[in-house]
Amino acid sequence: MSSGEAPETDDASAQRRTSWVTATGAPLTIVGGLLAMVFALQPWRVCPEDDAPAGCVALPHDTAVMMIGIGLFLFGILTLVIGRSVRTGGASQP
After folding, report:
1. Which of 3, 5, 24, 43 has its Cβ near the most Cβ atoms within 10 Å?
2. 1 part of a folded domain
3. How far apart are CA 8 and CA 16, in angstroms?
4. How many domains does one find in the chain?
5. Does 5 reside within a domain?
6. In a domain? residue 72
7. What is the pLDDT of residue 1?
8. Which stretches of the chain score pLDDT less than 50?
9. What is the 3-state secondary structure (H, E, C) of 15-51?
10. How many C-beta atoms surround the C-beta of residue 9 within 10 A?
11. Is residue 11 part of a domain?
């Protein structure tokens, strides 16, 4: 504290953590959801026996990328929920 700065309050620290968690969770949710949806629909795939690309059999690497997207989506949702509970202090409002 010799630099003349006031110590940071708990409210400011909690708000900064909440902002960081929200700024991390929102993009993870969006990217994960888009990644999973694109790899589930497989718009680049062409199947001779089916007229819809989503009806094609998924290759192992396609499935792995889709699972990563689902994991990112769920982790993003979890971080948003945690950020929301930190902001409200963990108590639910009636």
Report:
1. 24
2. no
3. 11
4. 1
5. no
6. yes
7. 47
8. 1, 94
9. HHHHHHHHHHHHHHHHHHHHHHHHHHHCCCCCCCCCC
10. 9
11. no
